[in-house]
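Backbone-to-sequence.
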């Protein structure tokens, strides 16, 4: 069983909701010999040492945490009633990686052309402790309001990806990347997945609900748009919506990235 927490900000109700429900689910799975894992999408601000100890109790070991650029830019966009949040989030990411042995953190960096400037991009990558980078997947996602400038950014993206790879990060992708042997683009689109909305409604969506995806030659490698986007656009043309239509990297570059990351993973598995 895989229990995924998504918000809003789920850690605002960690002790009231996330911890007790996860603990109950884990115990239920243990009683029935069912594997259990919990994951969460969070801004990373609310984490502290006390919470990390509770996180370990419920096998919460997959995190997606977002930054909106380097320190100055992030703090301008996202702060806690005026209080800067960048340093605390970075501190919490390092603390999670240091205290949880089997953890994977997807560090989503929302970017625009300003973020891609070499000095700013490298400052983000250098803020993560070297020994923790092997547990972190860098996921670059363009700020959707700036998509009209995407044609001028390919060199900056390539440079940032190359820098992240050489800096020791586990994996680097842009706009989701490609997957081999993983037949979903998001946990929400898994075949047996059911989403529970904030109002209690249940929903389920997959790539196979999109006729455009079913005709795509890249379907085995690229599994379509975000399921939430599919729900939002259902009445306004999801049949013609394609993630690849606004990608900033060529399919050739993406396939090479996939090959290199797969070879790297195979070598690491052989070594370990």
């Amino acid at each position: 069983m895989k229990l995924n927490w998504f918000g809003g900000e789920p850690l605002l109700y960690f002790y009231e909701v996330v911890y007790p429900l996860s603990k109950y689910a884990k115990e239920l799975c243990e009683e029935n010999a069912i594997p259990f894992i919990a994951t969460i999408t969070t801004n990373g601000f609310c984490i502290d040492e006390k919470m990390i100890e509770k996180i370990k109790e419920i096998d919460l070991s997959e995190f997606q945490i977002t930054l909106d650029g380097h320190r100055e830019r992030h703090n301008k966009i996202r702060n806690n009633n005026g209080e800067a949040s960048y340093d605390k989030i970075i501190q919490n990411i390092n603390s999670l990686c240091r205290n949880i042995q089997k953890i994977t953190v997807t560090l989503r960096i929302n970017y625009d052309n300003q973020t891609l400037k070499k000095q700013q991009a490298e400052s983000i990558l250098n803020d993560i402790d070297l020994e923790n980078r092997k547990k972190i997947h860098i996921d670059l996602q363009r700020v959707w309001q700036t998509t009209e400038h995407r044609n001028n950014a390919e060199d900056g993206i390539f440079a940032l990806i190359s820098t992240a790879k050489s800096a020791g990060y586990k994996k680097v992708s842009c706009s989701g990347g490609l997957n081999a042997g993983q037949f979903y683009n998001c946990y929400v689109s898994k075949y047996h997945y059911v989403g529970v909305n904030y109002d209690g409604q249940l929903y389920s969506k997959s790539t196979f609900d999109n006729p455009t995806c079913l005709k795509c030659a890249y379907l085995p490698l690229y599994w379509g748009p975000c399921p939430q986007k599919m729900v939002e656009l259902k009445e306004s043309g999801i049949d013609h919506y394609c993630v690849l239509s606004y990608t900033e990297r060529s399919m050739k570059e993406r396939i090479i990235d996939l090959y290199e990351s797969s070879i790297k993973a195979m070598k690491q598995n052989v070594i370990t």
